[in-house]
Amino acid sequence: MTTITTPTTITTPTAVTATTAVKPSPARTVRRVAWLANALFWTAFAVLEGVNHGWLAVVLAVVFFIAPDLTFLAGAKDAHKVEKGRLPPRAVPYYNAAHRALVPVALIAAYTFGPLTWAPIFAGLCGWLAHISFDRAFGYGLRTKDGFQRR
């Protein structure tokens, strides 16, 4: 009689990590998709303004798109003292002020109803609002006074 043996595999339990993935709620997903649609709209509007009004409108749209993240420089001196993902508390007020959507929306409304009609300014405001919208769509929101992401 022939006996067939199969090799056995011994498994050890895997290490459990301290952090586990949190499944986003449907409401959070809907909000992020809405922010993404908003970001694509304002990006398209900024591009349209650049095409219609020339290189200066393009430059201002790009500058205003990048400018909100320059607020990180306010905390550059203290950046080595904080853990990854946290903004130095010194930079938080500047970061939050530059990342509030109400600011460019109010300026767009003022531009629309005010006497100023220089199109590159409007292109810049579209770029700024696109930046904020992309941040919200990708999960980067305002910060707490300690520099952590608000949830």
Structural description of this entry:
With 151 residues, the protein is an all-alpha fold. It is 52% helix and 0% strand. The protein is built from five helices and no strands. Helix 1 (26-53) runs antiparallel to helix 2, helix 1 runs antiparallel to helix 5 (119-137) and helix 2 runs parallel beside helix 5 (119-137).
Helix and strand topology:
Blueprint: H1 26-53, H2 55-66, H3 92-98, H4 102-113, H5 119-137
Helix pairs in contact: 1-2, 1-5, 2-5, 4-5
Q: Helix segment count?
A: 5
> How widely separated are the two ends?
67 Å
Please describe the biggest sheet, giving its number of strands, its sense, and whether it closes into a barrel: none
According to DSSP, the number of beta strands is: 0
How many whole angstroms does the radius of gyration measure? 24 Å
The shape is globular
Helix content: 40-55%
What is the mean pLDDT?
88
Helix and strand string, N-terminal first? HHHHH
- Category by helix and strand content: mainly alpha
Low-confidence stretches: none
Strand content: under 5%
In short:
The protein has 151 residues and is mostly helical. The chain is 52% helix and 0% strand. Helix 1 packs antiparallel against helix 5, helix 2 packs parallel to helix 5 and helix 4 runs antiparallel to helix 5.
